[in-house]
Amino acid sequence: MSQLRTVHVLPVMLFVLLASVGSVAAQDATAPGTVVSAPEMLKAVTLVQIGKADAVDATDNPCTASMGYVDMPGMVKTFKLAGTVARPVLALFQGEWISGSDRALIRLVIDGVVQSGPGDSASPFAPHEGSGVATNGFNFISNTIAPGTHTAKIQWASVGGGSVCVDERSLIILHK
Amino acid sequence: MSRTGPALFAVLVCAAIAAGTAERGRAQAGQGDVSAGIEVLAPEADLLRSVTSVGTKFDGADMNDQPCTTSTGYVDMPGMTKNFTISGVSGGDEVVVLFQGEWIGGSGRALLRLVIDGIVIVGPGDDAAPFAPHEGTVVATTGFNFTSPRLLFGPHTAKLQWATTGAQVCVDERSMIILHK
Question: Which residues of B touch A (CB under 8 A)?
Answer without folding.
Answer: 55-67, 78-79, 82, 84-85, 87, 98-100, 102, 104-105, 138-143, 170, 172-175, 177, 179
